[in-house]
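Comment on both lines for my students:
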Amino acid sequence: MHQHILKLYNSAKKQQRLIIGLMSGTSLDGLDVALCQISGQGMETQIAVLAFETVDYDDDYKQKIKKVFAKRECDLELVTLLHPWVGALHGKMVNQCLAKWNIAADDIDAIASHGQTIYHCPNSQHSHADFNHGTLQIGDSDHVAVTTGITTIGDFRQKHIAAGGEGAPLAVYGDYLFFTSADENRILLNMGGIANLTYLPRSADASAVFSSDIGPGNTIMDAYIQRYFAPLHYDKDSQVAAQGTVNQALLTALCDNEFFSLAFPKTTGPEVFNLQYLARAQAATNTTELSHHDIMATLNRFSAQVIANAINDCSAKLDNVAVYASGGGIHNPLLMQHILSLCPQLQTINNTQSLGIDPDAKEAVLFAILANECLAGGQQRFGNQAQGIPTITMGKVSFAD
Protein backbone atom coordinates (compact mmCIF):
# COMPACT_ATOMS: atom_id res chain seq x y z
CA MET A 1 0.00 0.00 0.00
CA HIS A 2 1.26 3.50 -0.85
CA GLN A 3 2.62 5.28 2.23
CA HIS A 4 0.13 8.15 1.97
CA ILE A 5 -2.83 5.82 1.59
CA LEU A 6 -1.51 3.79 4.52
CA LYS A 7 -1.27 6.90 6.71
CA LEU A 8 -4.79 7.90 5.70
CA TYR A 9 -6.00 4.38 6.49
CA ASN A 10 -4.31 4.40 9.88
CA SER A 11 -5.77 7.84 10.69
CA ALA A 12 -9.23 6.59 9.73
CA LYS A 13 -8.92 3.67 12.18
CA LYS A 14 -7.97 5.85 15.14
CA GLN A 15 -10.40 6.57 17.93
CA GLN A 16 -8.65 9.91 18.53
CA ARG A 17 -7.07 12.27 16.01
CA LEU A 18 -5.16 15.55 15.98
CA ILE A 19 -6.62 17.80 13.29
CA ILE A 20 -5.84 21.43 12.53
CA GLY A 21 -8.80 23.47 11.34
CA LEU A 22 -8.14 26.58 9.24
CA MET A 23 -10.57 29.41 8.58
CA SER A 24 -10.01 32.61 6.64
CA GLY A 25 -13.14 34.71 6.52
CA THR A 26 -14.37 37.58 4.39
CA SER A 27 -13.17 40.08 7.00
CA LEU A 28 -9.58 39.33 5.88
CA ASP A 29 -8.26 39.94 9.38
CA GLY A 30 -6.21 36.76 9.68
CA LEU A 31 -6.01 32.99 9.46
CA ASP A 32 -7.68 31.16 12.35
CA VAL A 33 -5.64 28.06 13.26
CA ALA A 34 -7.26 25.62 15.71
CA LEU A 35 -5.44 22.50 16.93
CA CYS A 36 -8.19 20.04 17.82
CA GLN A 37 -8.06 16.69 19.55
CA ILE A 38 -11.10 14.85 18.25
CA SER A 39 -12.31 11.48 19.41
CA GLY A 40 -15.13 9.40 17.97
CA GLN A 41 -17.37 10.41 15.11
CA GLY A 42 -20.96 11.35 14.43
CA MET A 43 -23.03 12.05 17.53
CA GLU A 44 -20.22 10.56 19.64
CA THR A 45 -17.79 13.28 18.58
CA GLN A 46 -15.79 14.83 21.40
CA ILE A 47 -13.53 17.83 20.87
CA ALA A 48 -10.80 19.50 22.88
CA VAL A 49 -9.20 22.64 21.42
CA LEU A 50 -5.57 22.23 22.48
CA ALA A 51 -4.34 25.49 20.96
CA PHE A 52 -5.73 28.37 18.96
CA GLU A 53 -4.13 31.29 17.17
CA THR A 54 -5.27 33.95 14.74
CA VAL A 55 -2.29 34.74 12.55
CA ASP A 56 -2.82 38.31 11.38
CA TYR A 57 -2.66 39.13 7.69
CA ASP A 58 -0.37 41.96 6.74
CA ASP A 59 -1.45 44.80 4.46
CA ASP A 60 0.19 43.13 1.46
CA TYR A 61 -2.11 40.09 1.78
CA LYS A 62 -5.19 42.25 2.25
CA GLN A 63 -4.42 44.44 -0.75
CA LYS A 64 -3.72 41.46 -3.02
CA ILE A 65 -6.97 39.72 -2.05
CA LYS A 66 -9.05 42.90 -2.31
CA LYS A 67 -8.06 43.20 -5.97
CA VAL A 68 -10.10 40.07 -6.73
CA PHE A 69 -12.46 39.83 -3.75
CA ALA A 70 -16.22 39.94 -4.47
CA LYS A 71 -15.62 41.45 -7.93
CA ARG A 72 -17.53 40.29 -11.02
CA GLU A 73 -14.61 41.38 -13.16
CA CYS A 74 -10.97 41.07 -12.15
CA ASP A 75 -7.54 40.04 -13.39
CA LEU A 76 -7.71 36.30 -14.18
CA GLU A 77 -3.93 36.04 -14.20
CA LEU A 78 -3.83 37.43 -10.64
CA VAL A 79 -6.51 34.94 -9.49
CA THR A 80 -4.47 32.10 -11.01
CA LEU A 81 -1.31 33.24 -9.24
CA LEU A 82 -3.01 33.92 -5.91
CA HIS A 83 -4.45 30.39 -5.69
CA PRO A 84 -1.11 28.65 -5.00
CA TRP A 85 0.36 31.69 -3.24
CA VAL A 86 -2.40 31.76 -0.61
CA GLY A 87 -2.13 27.99 -0.11
CA ALA A 88 1.62 28.17 0.49
CA LEU A 89 1.21 31.18 2.79
CA HIS A 90 -1.42 29.39 4.87
CA GLY A 91 0.92 26.41 5.07
CA LYS A 92 3.71 28.64 6.38
CA MET A 93 1.34 30.08 8.97
CA VAL A 94 0.50 26.57 10.15
CA ASN A 95 4.23 25.82 10.43
CA GLN A 96 4.69 28.95 12.54
CA CYS A 97 1.94 27.82 14.90
CA LEU A 98 3.32 24.30 15.19
CA ALA A 99 6.75 25.69 16.04
CA LYS A 100 5.23 28.02 18.64
CA TRP A 101 3.25 25.14 20.16
CA ASN A 102 6.28 22.79 20.01
CA ILE A 103 4.33 20.17 18.06
CA ALA A 104 5.78 18.09 15.21
CA ALA A 105 4.01 17.93 11.86
CA ASP A 106 4.17 14.12 11.99
CA ASP A 107 1.88 14.18 15.03
CA ILE A 108 -0.94 15.80 13.05
CA ASP A 109 -3.38 13.54 11.24
CA ALA A 110 -4.79 16.16 8.88
CA ILE A 111 -5.35 19.82 8.15
CA ALA A 112 -8.84 21.01 7.26
CA SER A 113 -8.36 23.98 4.94
CA HIS A 114 -11.24 26.30 4.13
CA GLY A 115 -9.25 28.52 1.78
CA GLN A 116 -10.10 32.15 1.04
CA THR A 117 -13.49 32.85 -0.52
CA ILE A 118 -13.22 35.44 -3.26
CA TYR A 119 -16.63 35.07 -4.90
CA HIS A 120 -19.91 33.48 -3.81
CA CYS A 121 -22.69 33.20 -6.37
CA PRO A 122 -25.86 31.19 -5.60
CA ASN A 123 -28.44 31.18 -8.39
CA SER A 124 -30.56 33.71 -6.49
CA GLN A 125 -27.80 36.27 -7.10
CA HIS A 126 -27.10 35.79 -10.79
CA SER A 127 -29.15 35.94 -13.98
CA HIS A 128 -27.56 33.10 -15.93
CA ALA A 129 -30.28 30.56 -16.66
CA ASP A 130 -27.77 27.94 -17.83
CA PHE A 131 -25.97 27.87 -14.47
CA ASN A 132 -26.86 26.88 -10.93
CA HIS A 133 -24.90 27.75 -7.76
CA GLY A 134 -21.23 28.66 -7.71
CA THR A 135 -18.57 29.66 -5.22
CA LEU A 136 -14.81 30.11 -5.47
CA GLN A 137 -12.17 29.70 -2.79
CA ILE A 138 -8.47 30.18 -3.45
CA GLY A 139 -5.62 28.76 -1.38
CA ASP A 140 -4.76 25.46 -3.00
CA SER A 141 -4.79 22.58 -0.50
CA ASP A 142 -1.96 20.81 -2.37
CA HIS A 143 0.28 23.75 -1.52
CA VAL A 144 -0.85 23.64 2.11
CA ALA A 145 0.00 19.92 2.22
CA VAL A 146 3.41 20.24 0.57
CA THR A 147 4.38 23.28 2.65
CA THR A 148 3.46 21.61 5.95
CA GLY A 149 4.11 17.96 5.16
CA ILE A 150 0.61 17.19 6.46
CA THR A 151 -2.29 15.57 4.61
CA THR A 152 -4.77 18.35 3.86
CA ILE A 153 -8.49 18.17 3.17
CA GLY A 154 -10.03 21.12 1.32
CA ASP A 155 -12.60 22.26 -1.23
CA PHE A 156 -15.47 21.56 1.18
CA ARG A 157 -17.77 24.07 -0.47
CA GLN A 158 -17.38 22.56 -3.93
CA LYS A 159 -18.54 19.19 -2.65
CA HIS A 160 -21.56 20.82 -1.01
CA ILE A 161 -22.56 22.43 -4.31
CA ALA A 162 -21.96 19.22 -6.25
CA ALA A 163 -24.37 17.48 -3.85
CA GLY A 164 -27.08 20.10 -4.44
CA GLY A 165 -26.38 22.77 -1.83
CA GLU A 166 -25.35 26.40 -2.25
CA GLY A 167 -21.87 25.95 -0.78
CA ALA A 168 -22.71 27.80 2.45
CA PRO A 169 -23.08 27.85 5.34
CA LEU A 170 -21.17 24.67 6.15
CA ALA A 171 -21.57 25.03 9.91
CA VAL A 172 -24.59 22.75 10.10
CA TYR A 173 -22.73 19.45 10.29
CA GLY A 174 -20.36 20.38 13.10
CA ASP A 175 -23.02 22.38 14.94
CA TYR A 176 -25.36 19.39 14.91
CA LEU A 177 -22.75 16.88 16.06
CA PHE A 178 -21.27 18.98 18.84
CA PHE A 179 -23.89 21.46 20.05
CA THR A 180 -27.24 19.64 19.93
CA SER A 181 -28.89 19.52 23.36
CA ALA A 182 -31.90 17.60 24.67
CA ASP A 183 -32.48 20.37 27.21
CA GLU A 184 -33.13 23.35 24.95
CA ASN A 185 -33.72 24.51 21.41
CA ARG A 186 -30.53 26.18 20.28
CA ILE A 187 -29.62 28.79 17.71
CA LEU A 188 -25.91 28.95 16.91
CA LEU A 189 -25.33 32.48 15.61
CA ASN A 190 -22.10 33.32 13.83
CA MET A 191 -21.35 36.94 12.95
CA GLY A 192 -18.44 37.25 10.58
CA GLY A 193 -18.52 39.38 7.46
CA ILE A 194 -21.82 37.68 6.68
CA ALA A 195 -23.98 36.50 9.58
CA ASN A 196 -25.39 32.97 9.62
CA LEU A 197 -27.20 30.71 12.02
CA THR A 198 -27.85 27.03 12.66
CA TYR A 199 -31.12 25.92 14.23
CA LEU A 200 -30.82 22.87 16.50
CA PRO A 201 -34.12 21.55 17.92
CA ARG A 202 -33.88 19.82 21.27
CA SER A 203 -35.56 16.82 19.66
CA ALA A 204 -32.27 16.25 17.76
CA ASP A 205 -34.45 15.58 14.70
CA ALA A 206 -31.96 16.00 11.84
CA SER A 207 -34.78 16.66 9.38
CA ALA A 208 -35.62 19.87 11.27
CA VAL A 209 -32.03 21.13 11.46
CA PHE A 210 -30.93 23.84 9.06
CA SER A 211 -28.20 26.37 8.62
CA SER A 212 -28.63 29.61 6.70
CA ASP A 213 -27.01 32.92 5.93
CA ILE A 214 -28.91 35.86 7.40
CA GLY A 215 -27.39 38.89 5.73
CA PRO A 216 -24.62 41.34 6.55
CA GLY A 217 -22.75 40.92 9.80
CA ASN A 218 -19.62 43.08 9.84
CA THR A 219 -18.94 43.32 6.11
CA ILE A 220 -20.36 46.76 5.28
CA MET A 221 -19.35 48.27 8.61
CA ASP A 222 -15.77 47.07 8.18
CA ALA A 223 -15.60 48.32 4.60
CA TYR A 224 -16.89 51.74 5.65
CA ILE A 225 -14.40 52.03 8.51
CA GLN A 226 -11.53 51.02 6.23
CA ARG A 227 -12.51 53.65 3.66
CA TYR A 228 -13.24 56.61 5.93
CA PHE A 229 -11.37 55.87 9.16
CA ALA A 230 -8.09 54.36 7.91
CA PRO A 231 -5.87 52.92 9.24
CA LEU A 232 -8.64 51.35 11.35
CA HIS A 233 -9.95 48.03 10.01
CA TYR A 234 -13.12 47.80 12.10
CA ASP A 235 -15.20 49.78 14.58
CA LYS A 236 -13.46 48.71 17.79
CA ASP A 237 -15.86 48.60 20.73
CA SER A 238 -18.51 50.36 18.55
CA GLN A 239 -16.74 53.65 19.23
CA VAL A 240 -17.72 55.23 15.90
CA ALA A 241 -21.28 53.90 15.69
CA ALA A 242 -22.01 54.83 19.30
CA GLN A 243 -21.43 58.50 18.47
CA GLY A 244 -24.02 58.52 15.71
CA THR A 245 -27.80 58.46 15.35
CA VAL A 246 -29.73 55.87 13.36
CA ASN A 247 -31.37 57.34 10.25
CA GLN A 248 -34.72 55.57 9.86
CA ALA A 249 -35.15 56.30 6.14
CA LEU A 250 -31.75 54.87 5.30
CA LEU A 251 -32.34 51.89 7.58
CA THR A 252 -35.63 51.11 5.84
CA ALA A 253 -33.96 51.28 2.43
CA LEU A 254 -31.12 49.01 3.53
CA CYS A 255 -33.63 46.44 4.77
CA ASP A 256 -35.50 46.51 1.45
CA ASN A 257 -33.92 43.57 -0.37
CA GLU A 258 -35.59 40.45 -1.69
CA PHE A 259 -32.95 38.29 -0.03
CA PHE A 260 -34.54 38.94 3.35
CA SER A 261 -37.87 37.51 2.21
CA LEU A 262 -36.39 34.26 0.91
CA ALA A 263 -37.07 31.16 2.99
CA PHE A 264 -34.32 29.44 4.95
CA PRO A 265 -31.81 28.11 4.01
CA LYS A 266 -30.22 30.72 1.75
CA THR A 267 -26.81 32.22 1.12
CA THR A 268 -25.36 35.58 0.22
CA GLY A 269 -22.11 37.51 0.47
CA PRO A 270 -20.23 40.80 0.07
CA GLU A 271 -21.01 40.54 -3.63
CA VAL A 272 -24.46 41.90 -2.65
CA PHE A 273 -23.96 43.67 0.67
CA ASN A 274 -21.16 46.16 0.15
CA LEU A 275 -20.45 49.89 -0.08
CA GLN A 276 -22.20 50.08 -3.44
CA TYR A 277 -25.33 48.67 -1.80
CA LEU A 278 -25.06 51.40 0.84
CA ALA A 279 -24.52 54.10 -1.79
CA ARG A 280 -27.66 53.07 -3.68
CA ALA A 281 -29.70 53.17 -0.48
CA GLN A 282 -28.34 56.62 0.34
CA ALA A 283 -29.13 57.93 -3.14
CA ALA A 284 -32.67 56.58 -2.93
CA THR A 285 -33.28 58.29 0.43
CA ASN A 286 -31.40 61.55 -0.09
CA THR A 287 -29.09 60.72 2.81
CA THR A 288 -25.76 61.23 1.07
CA GLU A 289 -24.91 64.11 3.42
CA LEU A 290 -25.19 62.06 6.60
CA SER A 291 -22.19 62.17 8.91
CA HIS A 292 -19.91 59.17 8.98
CA HIS A 293 -20.96 58.49 12.57
CA ASP A 294 -24.66 58.48 11.66
CA ILE A 295 -24.01 56.12 8.76
CA MET A 296 -22.09 53.75 11.01
CA ALA A 297 -24.87 53.89 13.61
CA THR A 298 -27.38 53.01 10.89
CA LEU A 299 -25.24 50.19 9.48
CA ASN A 300 -24.86 48.75 12.97
CA ARG A 301 -28.63 48.80 13.48
CA PHE A 302 -29.12 47.31 9.99
CA SER A 303 -27.01 44.27 10.79
CA ALA A 304 -28.73 43.90 14.16
CA GLN A 305 -32.18 44.16 12.57
CA VAL A 306 -31.67 41.43 9.98
CA ILE A 307 -29.99 39.16 12.55
CA ALA A 308 -32.81 39.70 15.07
CA ASN A 309 -35.46 39.09 12.41
CA ALA A 310 -33.88 35.73 11.60
CA ILE A 311 -33.66 34.74 15.27
CA ASN A 312 -37.29 35.73 15.81
CA ASP A 313 -38.38 33.74 12.75
CA CYS A 314 -36.56 30.65 13.97
CA SER A 315 -37.81 30.88 17.52
CA ALA A 316 -41.45 31.74 16.79
CA LYS A 317 -43.84 29.40 18.67
CA LEU A 318 -40.94 27.76 20.52
CA ASP A 319 -40.21 27.86 24.20
CA ASN A 320 -36.87 27.34 25.86
CA VAL A 321 -34.74 28.86 23.09
CA ALA A 322 -31.11 29.79 23.71
CA VAL A 323 -28.81 31.70 21.37
CA TYR A 324 -25.05 31.12 21.40
CA ALA A 325 -22.97 33.58 19.39
CA SER A 326 -19.53 33.45 17.80
CA GLY A 327 -17.46 35.41 15.30
CA GLY A 328 -16.17 38.96 15.28
CA GLY A 329 -19.60 40.47 15.88
CA ILE A 330 -19.58 39.37 19.51
CA HIS A 331 -16.90 42.00 20.14
CA ASN A 332 -19.20 44.80 18.90
CA PRO A 333 -21.11 45.81 22.06
CA LEU A 334 -23.61 48.08 20.30
CA LEU A 335 -24.47 45.35 17.78
CA MET A 336 -25.03 42.84 20.59
CA GLN A 337 -27.13 45.36 22.52
CA HIS A 338 -29.33 46.04 19.49
CA ILE A 339 -29.86 42.35 18.74
CA LEU A 340 -30.92 41.60 22.30
CA SER A 341 -33.30 44.56 22.39
CA LEU A 342 -34.95 43.35 19.18
CA CYS A 343 -35.46 39.80 20.47
CA PRO A 344 -37.94 40.18 23.35
CA GLN A 345 -38.08 36.43 23.99
CA LEU A 346 -34.38 36.36 24.93
CA GLN A 347 -33.06 37.29 28.34
CA THR A 348 -29.46 37.10 27.22
CA ILE A 349 -27.24 36.02 24.34
CA ASN A 350 -24.41 33.74 25.39
CA ASN A 351 -21.34 32.94 23.36
CA THR A 352 -20.04 29.48 22.56
CA GLN A 353 -17.40 29.65 25.30
CA SER A 354 -20.17 28.53 27.66
CA LEU A 355 -20.46 25.39 25.50
CA GLY A 356 -16.73 24.71 25.57
CA ILE A 357 -15.60 26.32 22.29
CA ASP A 358 -13.79 29.65 21.98
CA PRO A 359 -16.19 31.82 19.93
CA ASP A 360 -13.30 33.15 17.84
CA ALA A 361 -12.13 29.60 17.07
CA LYS A 362 -15.53 28.07 16.33
CA GLU A 363 -15.46 28.24 12.53
CA ALA A 364 -11.99 26.71 12.32
CA VAL A 365 -13.08 23.98 14.74
CA LEU A 366 -16.11 23.18 12.59
CA PHE A 367 -13.89 22.54 9.58
CA ALA A 368 -11.75 20.25 11.72
CA ILE A 369 -14.94 18.31 12.50
CA LEU A 370 -15.68 18.01 8.77
CA ALA A 371 -12.20 16.62 8.21
CA ASN A 372 -12.68 14.16 11.06
CA GLU A 373 -15.95 12.94 9.57
CA CYS A 374 -14.26 12.69 6.18
CA LEU A 375 -11.61 10.43 7.68
CA ALA A 376 -14.09 8.45 9.77
CA GLY A 377 -16.63 8.03 6.97
CA GLY A 378 -19.52 9.70 8.77
CA GLN A 379 -22.78 10.64 7.08
CA GLN A 380 -25.79 12.67 8.13
CA ARG A 381 -28.76 14.05 6.22
CA PHE A 382 -30.49 17.28 7.12
CA GLY A 383 -33.86 18.73 6.31
CA ASN A 384 -33.92 21.74 3.98
CA GLN A 385 -30.26 21.16 3.09
CA ALA A 386 -28.52 19.40 0.22
CA GLN A 387 -29.51 15.81 0.87
CA GLY A 388 -27.29 12.83 1.45
CA ILE A 389 -23.82 14.37 1.50
CA PRO A 390 -21.49 11.59 2.66
CA THR A 391 -18.55 13.29 4.32
CA ILE A 392 -16.24 10.43 3.34
CA THR A 393 -16.18 12.21 -0.02
CA MET A 394 -16.59 15.75 1.32
CA GLY A 395 -13.52 17.67 0.28
CA LYS A 396 -10.37 17.04 -1.73
CA VAL A 397 -7.58 15.08 -0.04
CA SER A 398 -4.10 16.47 -0.77
CA PHE A 399 -0.98 14.54 0.21
CA ALA A 400 2.29 16.09 1.28
CA ASP A 401 4.33 14.96 -1.75
